[in-house]
Design brief:
Elements lengths: L2 E5 L2 E6 L6 E6 L13 H10 L8 E6 L4 E6 L2 H16 L6 H14 L8 H6 L19 H11 L5 E6 L31 E5 L3 E9 L2 H21 L6 E7 L4 E9 L5 H16 L5 H15 L4 H15 L6 H10 L2 H13 L2 E5 L10 E2 L11 E4 L6 E4 L3 E6 L2 E6 L3 E6 L5 E5 L4 E4 L8 H10 L5 E3 L12 H11 L5 H30 L4 H33 L1
Parallel strand pairs: 2-6, 7-11, 7-12, 17-20
Antiparallel strand pairs: 1-2, 3-5, 3-6, 4-5, 8-10, 8-11, 9-10, 13-14, 14-15, 15-16, 17-18, 18-19
Helix pairs in contact: 1-2, 1-3, 1-5, 6-7, 6-8, 6-11, 7-11, 8-10, 14-15
Keywords: Membrane, Transmembrane, Transmembrane helix
Protein name: Insulinase family protein
InterPro entries: Metalloenz_LuxS/M16 (IPR011249)
């Protein structure tokens, strides 16, 4: 059984384990509580807290998710006591001396991490706020100060907003959780960037991914595995179209959960995989679900609860529920719920998942034919303002007191200042406005006939706390109008050496003389009769003349091609 205790005012969960002792201190705060302009503050604070602890013989780490942050370790009871006591001490007195160092480490971490097929799902569903922020770089790091971090810690890292969990036989002696008083923080409401569902968006990955929002319940958890079994059978075993098939079920903390599934494909099989994937969803949606699949998934879950480590394994999820105010159940209650799930329950989840579905489909494919609506990539409205035309095409910028619109053949993009999640500002004058709906509008002063006054309107319109200063760009990476690019190429083209010019002049003169003489000889041979004994000699002279002309012209050709390269 999981025991409920209290340590220094922090709710504490204790469960027995047959392995090494492990523990975690979990707080109800994560990336979904941030704004895009301050994105990264929780992750940075986590790094600062752990940095002074250095290396140790035991394993410890921290993790920042969308709605929680955990400091955890495995080791002896004294080691756990020392670790968690130090974590709390560092939270109340932040070691900010490494602030800039840890910022650089986080930037390196982001730049070196691999991209996963599901990374962009939050952005498309939620936009550039709350639960969608996990799709974005941690742009807020640059402007964060030590005082910002202290205020963040004082608000979120408190006794009332924490849960301690321990897999072991006791609370370690000497453990002190010296945290300030505060309040339990609710999970932020999830925004939506989708006008309608089921929806889809196109992505460069060679995979089909489903994201659905369903009510959190045992039947939904079971359905995720049933869906995976159906996809595996249809796309890998029967059709041989996919290699990787996977599914997941992730509670959000607000009574809802994300249900996800993935199937990869070869480039030439993308249409077939998408069709097969949607066929499986349609099959489950109409209630064609196998009892054998339900029985197999339930049996596997029952086996998991039969292990001696069942309670210890549940501790992190148990703490998550406690922080979010969601119910926790005993193993017997969990088993009863598992056994009570019916095919009708799964059918209900399937319909719920289909109704809220967001599909990621590969480039070159579409899900319109299956009744899915394309997620918006443009805006429906424009702002009133002054028009600035592009120097190279027919696109236009409208810059006004309420926002900015970009009108082009590809559609309209509009970001109002009130709904601007963040504005990236480069020293060369470029601006990138990101709306709460994830619409991105880029302003390159080099490509539009803008005036300094126009950019001042933009800079004045976006609240200062949403402006992010970006590092200088390489001048070569700044886009330029076609005419200016051509002029620069001419100016930067290196001058020819004197011997090259002389060689090209001599080659040209020789080519003209020999080529002209050979041309006249050729014309004469064609229009004037020639003695039979002279024909072979004269035609031989023509052939030699043309060959010599080609040889004499070679220096010009080679030097010109070399310069173009």
């Amino acid at each position: 059984m999981i025991q409920h205790l209290e340590t220094d005012g922090v709710p504490t969960l204790l469960a027995p384990t047959g392995g090494p002792m492990r523990a975690g201190l979990t707080f109800r705060v994560g990336t979904a509580d941030e704004t895009l302009a301050r994105h990264g503050i929780t992750h940075l604070l986590e790094h600062l807290v752990l940095a002074p602890l250095g290396t140790a013989d035991y394993h410890f780490n921290g993790a920042t998710g969308p709605t929680f942050t955990t400091f955890h370790m495995q080791g002896s009871a004294p080691d756990i006591a020392t670790f968690l006591t130090s974590v709390c001490a560092n939270l109340t007195d932040l070691p900010t001396g490494r602030l800039e160092v840890e910022k650089d480490i986080l930037r390196t971490e982001w730049s070196s991490r691999g991209s996963a097929a599901i990374d962009d799902i939050p952005l498309w569903r939620h936009g550039a706020r709350d639960h969608g922020l996990s799709s974005y770089p941690e742009w807020g790091l640059g402007r964060l100060t030590a005082e910002d971090l202290r205020q963040w810690a004082a608000r979120w890292f408190t006794r009332e907003n924490a849960v301690l969990w321990i897999a072991g036989d006791r609370v370690p002696e000497g453990l002190r959780l010296d945290l300030p008083a505060g309040t339990r923080q609710p999970v932020p409401a999830a925004s939506s960037a989708l006008p309608a569902t089921p929806a889809y968006f196109v992505h460069g990955s060679r995979a089909v991914v489903l994201d659905a929002v369903v009510r959190r319940r045992t039947a939904a958890n079971i359905f995720a595995e049933v869906l995976e079994r159906e996809l595996f059978r249809a796309l890998r075993q029967d059709a041989g179209l996919s290699y990787t098939i996977g599914s997941g079920y992730e509670p959000r903390g607000d009574g809802q959960a994300h249900l996800r599934a993935l199937a990869d494909s070869l480039a030439e099989k993308q249409d077939a995989v998408l069709g097969g994937f949607i066929d499986v969803l349609a099959k489950l949606r109409v209630g064609r679900i196998e009892q054998s699949d339900l029985d197999a998934v339930v049996a596997k879950r029952i086996d998991m609860y039969a292990t001696a480590e069942a309670d210890a394994t549940r501790l992190p999820a148990y703490a998550f529920n406690l922080l979010n105010g969601e119910p926790n159940r005993t193993i017997d209650e969990q088993l009863a719920q598992l056994k009570a799930v019916t095919l009708a329950d799964l059918h209900e989840v399937a319909q719920e998942a289909y109704a809220s579905a967001l599909l990621m489909v590969p480039n070159g494919t579409s899900a319109d034919w299956a009744g899915f609506t394309a997620a918006p990539t443009s805006s429906e409205s424009t702002v009133a303002g002054t028009t600035y035309r592009a120097r190279d095409d027919d696109s236009r910028l409208l810059i006004g007191t309420e926002g900015v619109s970009h009108l082009s053949a590809g559609g309209t993009l509009t970001v109002t200042y009130a709904d601007c999640a963040a504005m990236l500002a480069w020293p060369d004058g470029a601006r990138q406005l990101i709306g709460h709906d994830a619409i991105v509008l880029h302003i390159e002063p080099t490509l539009f006939d803008t005036r300094p006054a126009a950019m001042h309107v933009v800079d004045s319109g976006v609240p200062i706390d949403r402006q992010i200063t970006m590092p200088p760009r390489d001048p070569e990476s700044i886009p330029q109008p076609r005419a200016l690019r051509a002029a620069r190429e001419r100016l930067t083209r290196p001058k020819r050496a004197g011997w090259e010019i002389l060689l090209m002049v001599l080659s040209g003169l020789a080519t003209l003389v020999v080529g002209g003489f050979t041309l006249l000889l050729t014309i004469g041979m064609l229009i004037s009769p020639t003695a039979e004994e002279d024909v072979a000699v004269l035609w031989g002279a023509v052939v030699v003349g043309w060959l010599l002309t080609v040889i004499l012209a070679l220096p010009i050709v080679l030097l010109t091609r070399g310069r173009r390269r």
